[in-house]
Amino acid sequence: MSEKSFLSDMLQRIARAGPFLSSKLPLTPENLIELCEELVSDKGEASGLKTAFKIMDIYDTATMEERRSFFLDMAEKFGVNHNGLEKAVANWQPGDNTAARELYFAAQPRSQELIRRLNRVPGGAARLVRMRADLLSFVKEEPSLKALDHDFQHLFSFWFTRGFLEISQIDWSTPASILEKIIAYEAVHQIHGWDDLRQRVAEVDRRMFAFFHPAMPGDPLIFVEVALTKKIPGSITEILEQDREPIDANAATSAIFYSISNCQNGLRGISFGNFLIKQVVAELQRAIPSLNTFVTLSPVPGLRRWVNQALEGDEPLLSAEDRSKLEALGEDDVPSPEFAARLAARYLLNARSKRGTAFDPVANFHLGNGAILHKVHANADLSANGKKNSWGVMVNYLYNEAKIEEHHQAYATDTTIACSSEVRSLAK
Fold first, then answer.
1. Catalytic site residue from 298, 374, 390, 407
2. Which of the residues in the chain have pLDDT under 50?
3. Distance CA 352, CA 178 (A)
4. CA-to-CA distance for 261 and 210, rounded, in angstroms?
5. For domain 3-159, which architecture applies?
6. For 233-336, where are the alpha helices, taking DSSP H only?
7. Cα separations in angstroms, 317 against 352, 354, 356, 399
């Protein structure tokens, strides 16, 4: 048994051994907030662990409505200590670094200390990630919970940094418990059972890599699927077809990142994809020297949503002829390949969010990582989901190692989108 596992098991035995003496409160969801108050004020390690375990256990048995009530109470009662903050503000003077630090700590809400103490229990990080997933489901209807969610996200951004992440290749020898989760978590191109999974992880020209965290060793945070090819494919069918002929990996010249799936909804807003892609590129270059091209084959999930919004407004990117063609389309119709490709190129290069970044979330992710918008493919994904989101359009984003930092900086500074001459011409 590893030292880490031994320590975790010992802490669990200490926390769960004997009667629960640290509180006389009934152990029900209605008393979760009172138990949280006891946890934050508790000075003892063992009694604190017992209280934290009980809070987690009670939370897990609570209904969704009881969880909503718990979060609302936490947001209200575990905010900033205003008396302490007022005192720290009064003591601060320009140039006083000690007082400035005291002011910083005084401004932290008590909810952050509560979350830290809950994280001390073995398995606490995974349970807190699940807890935040519940919280996110309530935030839209309960705006007062946004600040509490910021507390979770703030702490997770420290606990799940790149330095803690461990990369692993997923193959046919990976434990079945993890492979089952890969099937369930695949968010881009559904995995249809074990035979389909075998093709994606066991064929000689396929690779899959995932990031894990030591606090969640059996549960991937994010994974990427890679096809090794001799050319850049123009459709997802070329990659996923059942009866294709595998090639020798050492004969491949291109690595195609065709699916990236975030696995933990509770870690939304904590970005791992940038680190994962760069790490996988390094791993592949080291293992297969013949590879010289690294591109994605990515969906365009925002295209039809943007078109629907544009048709309702005064969008200058759509001409009168464009509008006429689009309004004539039925819900299940697919525009001509030429029209779909031109529309997608114009959308990807010009449509912007309120922040000025690319409107399309996948485009924003890859452009922000320093990729170049390389090629647009019509009729590349004619699955139900592909047609629903983008009429089947897919895109290659090219990762040119020599230009990544330059493109990243240009996009981060003034949202300049790097693209190939082919895409720029298509957009005109």
1. 298
2. 1, 6-7, 10, 20-21
3. 38
4. 9
5. Up-down Bundle (1.20)
6. 237-240, 273-287, 303-312, 320-328
7. 11, 16, 16, 28
- Cβ atoms 418, 411 nearer than 8 A: yes
CATH 1.20.140.90 in the chain, residue ranges: 3-159
Q: Which two tokens stand for residue 271?
A: 């970005």
Query: What CATH number does the domain located at 163-296 have?
Result: 3.40.630.180
Is 214:205 a contact under the CB 8 Å cutoff? no
DSSP 418: P
State how far the Cα of 220 lies from the Cα of 261, in Å rounded to an integer.
10
**141 token code pair:** 């209807």
Dihedral sign, CA of 309, 313, 314, 320? positive
- The tens digit of pLDDT for each residue in 45-81 reads 788 899 999 999 999 999 999 999 999 999 999 999 8
d(Cα 88, Cα 189) in Å, to the nearest integer? 53
Q: What is the pTM of this model?
A: 0.87
Query: Which one of 22, 189, 259, 366 is the catalytic residue?
Result: 366
Pairing of β 206-212 and β 166-169:
antiparallel
* Catalytic residue status for 150: no
Task: Determine the Cα–Cα distance for residues 226 and 14; give it in Å rounded to an integer.
Answer: 44
Q: In the CATH scheme, what is the homologous superfamily, with its name and number, of domain 299-427?
A: Malonyl-CoA decarboxylase, catalytic domain (3.40.630.150)
What is the pLDDT at residue 2? 53
The residue type of 298 is S
Phi first, then psi: what are they for 41, rounded to 5°?
Answer: -90, -10
Any catalytic annotation for residue 192?
no
Instruction: Report the pLDDT value the prediction gives residue 421, as an integer from 0 to 100.
Output: 96
